[in-house]
Amino acid sequence: MPDLHQRIASFRGNVFPRQAALYRRLAQDGQQPQALMISCADSRVMPETITQSGPGELFVCRNAGNIVPPFSNMNGGVSSAIEYAVMALKVHDIIVCGHSECGAMKGLCCPHLIEEMPNVQAWLRHSHAARSVATQLYANELDQDDMICAVTLENVLVQLDHLRTHPSVAAGLAAGEINLHGWFFDIKTGGVLVYDGAKERFVEPEADAPLPVAVTGRSRACMPVALTSAMAAE
Amino acid sequence: MPDLHQRIASFRGNVFPRQAALYRRLAQDGQQPQALMISCADSRVMPETITQSGPGELFVCRNAGNIVPPFSNMNGGVSSAIEYAVMALKVHDIIVCGHSECGAMKGLCCPHLIEEMPNVQAWLRHSHAARSVATQLYANELDQDDMICAVTLENVLVQLDHLRTHPSVAAGLAAGEINLHGWFFDIKTGGVLVYDGAKERFVEPEADAPLPVAVTGRSRACMPVALTSAMAAE
Amino acid sequence: MPDLHQRIASFRGNVFPRQAALYRRLAQDGQQPQALMISCADSRVMPETITQSGPGELFVCRNAGNIVPPFSNMNGGVSSAIEYAVMALKVHDIIVCGHSECGAMKGLCCPHLIEEMPNVQAWLRHSHAARSVATQLYANELDQDDMICAVTLENVLVQLDHLRTHPSVAAGLAAGEINLHGWFFDIKTGGVLVYDGAKERFVEPEADAPLPVAVTGRSRACMPVALTSAMAAE
Amino acid sequence: MPDLHQRIASFRGNVFPRQAALYRRLAQDGQQPQALMISCADSRVMPETITQSGPGELFVCRNAGNIVPPFSNMNGGVSSAIEYAVMALKVHDIIVCGHSECGAMKGLCCPHLIEEMPNVQAWLRHSHAARSVATQLYANELDQDDMICAVTLENVLVQLDHLRTHPSVAAGLAAGEINLHGWFFDIKTGGVLVYDGAKERFVEPEADAPLPVAVTGRSRACMPVALTSAMAAE
Amino acid sequence: MPDLHQRIASFRGNVFPRQAALYRRLAQDGQQPQALMISCADSRVMPETITQSGPGELFVCRNAGNIVPPFSNMNGGVSSAIEYAVMALKVHDIIVCGHSECGAMKGLCCPHLIEEMPNVQAWLRHSHAARSVATQLYANELDQDDMICAVTLENVLVQLDHLRTHPSVAAGLAAGEINLHGWFFDIKTGGVLVYDGAKERFVEPEADAPLPVAVTGRSRACMPVALTSAMAAE
Amino acid sequence: MPDLHQRIASFRGNVFPRQAALYRRLAQDGQQPQALMISCADSRVMPETITQSGPGELFVCRNAGNIVPPFSNMNGGVSSAIEYAVMALKVHDIIVCGHSECGAMKGLCCPHLIEEMPNVQAWLRHSHAARSVATQLYANELDQDDMICAVTLENVLVQLDHLRTHPSVAAGLAAGEINLHGWFFDIKTGGVLVYDGAKERFVEPEADAPLPVAVTGRSRACMPVALTSAMAAE
Ligand SMILES: [Zn+2]
Ligand SMILES: [Zn+2]
Ligand SMILES: [Zn+2]
Ligand SMILES: [Zn+2]
Ligand SMILES: [Zn+2]
Ligand SMILES: [Zn+2]
Fold first, then answer.
1. Å from C58 to nearest chain E CA?
2. How far is CA F70 from CA C114, E181, F164, F195, in A?
3. DSSP state, B12?
4. Residue D25 forms part of a structural domain
5. Least CB-CB distance to D74: which of A51, A74, A104?
6. To probe the interface with C, which of E123, E165, E173, E215 has the most C CB atoms within 10 Å?
7. How far apart are CA D43 and CA D46, in angstroms?
8. How far apart are CA C209 and CA C201, in angstroms?
9. Ligand 1 center from residue A102 Cα (angstroms)
């Protein structure tokens, strides 16, 4: 990267001065991002650009395949980012954002592409459920490109399921303090498909309607009351 | 157990002969259980008795707290039982059955009870989401016994969430071949509360209505079609 | 399972009332089972039926292959069940019960049967020692069915060896408070073969003799005394 | 995030059209980023902004604390991103970028801040070497803020050490195909300090000099030759 | 170590020449050690000196506490050494050798000594069974020094139990090709206490008798035959 | 090993008496070894002989391949030995010693040799970086024997890199209290090649010069000062 030097100089000389006060305030007061976005490491998918976010607005966790391992006894970087975002930063929205032409999803569908990459293989185990579902549903109907696309969409849903296994997320959903979003960014069109939990499918957001949500947090009714009344009915 | 000897002799002499033909056929043809039941190791919760099942009818996985670890890179006995039940035995129903007076749930709520038991502590990490949810929802309203009961119910739901992270289960649900059940067995009354996924709460099953189901498998609509149509709209 | 509804209703309506007082007492006083039984998830092997046990008598851990992972830094459900049974419930007997026609043991001997089941494969690593021993001893003598049977018996012994690596079991054995049992249930005959630790082989229990035991706990002689006397001899 | 809807619409309507051809080409030809940047999930540290990168230029892995676990038998998302970036994308530069006011580094120095966050605690074990070094060097000289700053700088170096344990990185360095960069972004000033491997300290890049590099890859001399000659000398 | 230079020069100049032919032959033909010795890293316990072994005679694995983790899904250096020694080198004897004044055993009994050493703590989990047994047996009878000694002896037995869980060892024992030895080296006297499996205690070896063995491998009787005969008896 | 009995008797009767006072003092005062040596389990590589060390002088960790896993969340015996040696014993030198004709390195280069040894395979993952580097550098130039030799040398360097990821070692290096040594013992010649960190290659030690060191610990300059001055320059 011959021009790394110029690039950071350009940021500091030309870009930073226009936002110096904002940066200074963020340094003093700390960050208060509204959302955590989990997206792919892919260089064509820039979370802050897609969401037109400035400094301090978006807490971002990126890895190959926008994967969220389920909460278990061996957790790592993604689990820590979730825990920190929910418990320390109190984010209100968590977005899992997949994308078209994803190299990780291609590797999941065509294992020979990653046969020299044992870590990538192991990491993609967290997406096996997406591949199993898509194979089950579409095995005989789709050509390879459409299958990769289908797996990519199912992968977003699988990672949302994994998100819910994290205690902090489960508690936030029960308390109605968090919403979960499942997105798919299309590099060719710049459009974002959004999973609509009520309709159970990805939709293109409509201009005049509210943005569909994958999983809406809501204050749940008290189960023991239901239980007690059921018991009392005997 | 001074009478272990008599007990197995009694089974062989008095009970087995009445079902010898059935056992012999099951030995020859193999098992074809309709359901997998995941329940607690507790001696007061006997899966075959509660479901009035005979030999060959119920594949049973039991552990402290009827826990299902999420699918991840470090899986063990429960994951193997699920995989075998779904892929080799083609079960149609998976039941997670919690129960009243559960020692594991008490340990989860009162950590001092299990402070000398490091394995139990680690195992119950898979139920932390249940405790987090119940604490969030009921912290100031319930006394300890009711809180343990609430945690026990939430724990059934958390384990159902974990079940869905297993590729074989996710694929079976998508294909409409599996239903998931969330039950709570009350030792004092012999009754079973059943989670109704549509109503989002535990209910007592009604005599004339079909048994409520927690998660109904169904053949899903083809997502790429939705995607394509959304794209075509541009 | 079309009749799950009827089944639980039948239990509650017809079976439970005859034992309501017992269940109620068990709910109030807690369980005090005499034994922990570790058996296979197989639907044809019902621990309470084989041992003619009623509610409250048998703490039961079931998984594919009646496996007991050795105590290590990554423990799960079986280790927790053992720890809870020994430390909280003070059971006196631990039974590892294998059985004929076991699908897990078949998978261990014929890996192609489970090549699509990565969790089962990994789980059966805990039985590799049984396969290694049987291959060593019988490789050229037994046909496949007998070999599977031999592996199943060796597997019971391997799991007994694993049991002894758990600190709570090791301490209980040293104090003479626990006995370990190795059983093999034959689905075709209803019979139970029992490992006789003294004779070092499986035997059919004899009517008039005490039930053989695999590993008898006993209060051990004090080693440092032996040591001291040895040292003093110099 | 009430305006998520507007934000993605704004990107698509106002920003994307100006770069539609670039995005389309990147979708067709795939990405060829020059660098992998590993930075913190912090919302105030935007890798593409700091490096003034456009779509397709920067492969980005972000987690709490810009951590790189060492290559081992239990790898996750960061290891996969590295493996994919080096082996599939052939990046030439890997940048580990720490920053001022880092919440993860504060948690590392003040454990009480994260005592309710077990995942964050476990994740920060990968930074313990940084804390050990800083404590060793500066324990009695620095106040808490300076100590956090020192730990943050040492943490960049520790993660560079971890990077070198990854086989793909080790091979790339030996072949002279990769350079490693250690950066520190100061939110208050917009400046980037750069680790100079030759001088063994962080420096501010000078306008007229080349950007200092932490670890320069270079084609290594052939060791067996050295060995042979040494042996021949006998 | 100011004299490391002289030391290796001294070996090469003064010691090696006297055994040059032996070393050369060992380099050409490979090693064929008769035994694997697993002993502590302690500088006062030198395996080759205690056993008066020359080059090529003893395969040696050393770690803090002469520990053998049980065979499981997460194995490391000791398991690899065992596997290599038994399968590639065909050793006939495996010796686990504990010793007096062992720092690891002191840390096991007095956890405050190692509270700053998280790896040592975790590693010693593999010795918890020894501590549990000794506490159970001697809690009220021994002073601290004797208790450490008792734990050290029990630890040798626990590691022998762990050894048996390794498939290669289990197979070798069943085939009568391996013997297991449990030793205790007393630094003060130079004596070795040997565990006598038949007597179930440590003894001082007697001059005229064969060396006692902890676990004697022997060709086992064929279990399926026993089984068949038992079955035939019906 | 028919003569194990004689061997330990010979040590006690003939060798120990000449050093009885030294052993007794070491038992009373504890060990204070100057160095930790990490070497292969190979029977032809005897650390105390190569370094002409007596009792109490060398803390020794041995495993197949003289491997040091990097510090991570799953540590074992080697990590514990390092931690204990540095923190409890305050060693000043850590030597990683590879050797010619190493079976582990042969297995790394010729995987078919170890295809029946899953633990050895997994363990050697910690040496994959060495193989990747050697393949990158010498793939087309060396025959197999020379390649194994090259991998063996690179492996020493990789393990030194791993050593530096351990917090205790990193802190010791920063404080100038520890030196790291990379050695290669040639069985055929008895010679030791030593890695010279300054020259970046293995050399034969010269008689009149100080022994070259791989990584020299040194009291590092205070980074925050550098930082502060850089910042002040704005
Ligand atoms: Zn992607
Ligand atoms: Zn329970
Ligand atoms: Zn079975
Ligand atoms: Zn940060
Ligand atoms: Zn020791
Ligand atoms: Zn070697």
1. 25
2. 34, 32, 8, 20
3. I
4. no
5. A74
6. E165
7. 7
8. 16
9. 4
Nearest in space to D183 (alpha carbons), one of D50, D3, D25, D28: D50
Q: Name the neighbours of A, counting chains with at least 3 Cβ pairs within 8 A.
A: B, D
Distance from the B211 Cα atom to the nearest Cα atom in chain A, whole angstroms:
15
Whether B22 is covered by a domain: the verdict is no
Residues of A in contact with B174 (CB under 8 A): 133, 136-137
**What is the percentage of chain E residues whose pLDDT exceeds 70?**
91
Q: Whole-angstrom Cα distance, residue D173 to residue F200?
A: 14
CB A113 within 8 A of CB A106: yes
The complex scores an ipTM of 0.88
> Which amino acid type is present at position F116?
E
Whether F213 has a pLDDT exceeding 90, the answer reads yes
Expressed in angstroms and rounded, the spacing between residue A28 Cα and the centre of ligand 5 is 52
**Nearest CA to CA, how far is C31 from chain E (Å)?**
25
Q: Residue B171 is nearest to which of A71, A136, A223, comparing CB atoms? A: A136
Per the structure, the complete domain to which residue F122 belongs is given by 31-233
C-alpha–C-alpha distance, residues C118 and C124, integer Å? 10
**Which residue did the predictor score with more confidence, E219 or B211?**
B211
Q: Say what the pTM is.
A: 0.89
B75 in Cβ contact with C38 (< 8 Å)? no
CA-nearest residue to E101 within chain F is F27
**Residue whose C-alpha is closest to residue C195's, from C170, C225, C159:** C159
Handedness of CA B20, B25, B30, B34 (dihedral sign): negative
Whether residue B26 lies inside any domain: the answer is no
Per-residue 3-state assignment (H helix, E strand, C coil) for C190-210: CCEEEEECCCCEEECCCCCCC
Residue D186 resides in a domain: yes
Please indicate whether, in this complex, the C-beta atoms of D27 and A192 are within 8 angstroms of each other.
no
Distance from CA of E62 to the nearest CA of C (A): 19
Which has the minimum average pLDDT: A57-61, D143-147, E149-153, F193-197?
A: D143-147
- The CATH number of residue B201's host domain is 3.40.1050.10
Query: Of A228-232, B48-52, C109-113, where does mean pLDDT reach its minimum?
Result: A228-232
Q: How far is the CA of B99 from the centre of ligand 3 (A)?
A: 26
Range F111-118 contact pairs with CB under 8 angstroms and sequence separation of 24 or more: F113/E88, F114/E88, F116/E87, F117/E80, F117/E83, F117/E84, F117/E87, F117/E88, F118/E83
The helix/strand count (H/E) of chain D reads as 10, 7
| Cα radius of gyration rounded to whole Å, chain D | 20
Determine what percent of chain C is predicted with pLDDT higher than 90. Answer: 77
Report the C-alpha gap between C133 and C141 in whole angstroms. 14
CA-based nearest residue to B131, from D225, D67, F176, A71:
A71
- pLDDT tens readout for residues A6-58: 999 999 999 999 999 999 999 999 999 999 999 999 999 999 999 999 999 99
| Residue F232 binned pLDDT confidence (cut-offs 50, 70, 90) | very low
In terms of Cα–Cα distance, which of B45, A114, B43 is closest to D83? A114
Is the distance from CB of D184 to CB of D97 less than 8 angstroms? yes
* CA–CA separation, C64 and C78 (whole Å): 11
For position D233, what pLDDT does the model report?
Answer: 44
Number of folded domains that form chain F:
1
Helix (H, G, I), strand (E, B) or coil at D51: coil
3+ Cβ–Cβ pairs closer than 8 Å linking D and C: no
Nearest to C181 by CA among C171, C190, C192, C168: C192
Average pLDDT (D79-100) is 96
Give the sign of the dihedral formed by CA B88, CA B93, CA B94, CA B98. negative
Cβ separation D76–A76 shorter than 8 A = yes
